[in-house]
Amino acid sequence: MEYTDTYQTIATESEEVLFKEKGSKFFGYAFPIESEDEVKPIIENLKKLHPHAVHFCYAYQLGVTPKISYRANDDGEPSNTAGAPIYGQIQSFGLTNVIVVVVRIFGGTKLGVGGLISAYKTSAQMTLENCEIVEKTIDVAFLISFDYKNMNKVMRVIKEKKLDIISQEMEMDQDSELPIGKISIKTRKKNAEMVFDIFSLMFEINIKYL
């Protein structure tokens, strides 16, 4: 089965971008996000920053194929004139785990449907052009447990396979009163099955998915 274990997103929160059209001001922002829970606080902070703005339009995408979730929000603008063109730019740049927000301060002149679509699209495009785009891997985490005497065996595999250590600790086994090692590791998704098999076949070593 073909799947990807990398994705593109933005490295950090963007600088504010300003696009003007017929007196209206469109402020663009982009943020890297990991979950939908981050959306509401971002919008609330921007509302504090722009107390006179009426429209806080946004789009976001999370995850990779086949588990993608997204939303486009017009926030009071005519249907599909704001959220959809913003989302179109997220797709155009090939990004995920990102939200783009365009804040509009009305300038007194109506832009019409075509004008709005163009303004929100341009604002989102300018915002993303301002961002550093990075490639990240989708990682899978494991917990490895072992008697302390097997520490070197475990560490050798971690080093050979270039696995990332998330955390490691030692604790005393209540039954044997011997030290037990616990190491949390992560590897990119495409290597996960191989890594699991290596450790599960090793004597006196337990591995489980986190």
From TrEMBL:
Gene3D superfamilies: Impact, N-terminal domain. One of its GO terms (cellular component) is cytoplasm. Residues 22-127 form the Impact N-terminal domain. Coiled coil: none annotated. It comes from the Bacteria. InterPro entries: Impact (IPR023582), Impact_N (IPR001498), Impact_N_sf (IPR036956), Ribosomal_Su5_D2-typ_SF (IPR020568). It holds the Pfam family Impact_N. One of its GO terms (biological process) is regulation of translational initiation. Belongs to the IMPACT family. This is YigZ family protein. It comes from Flavobacterium geliluteum.
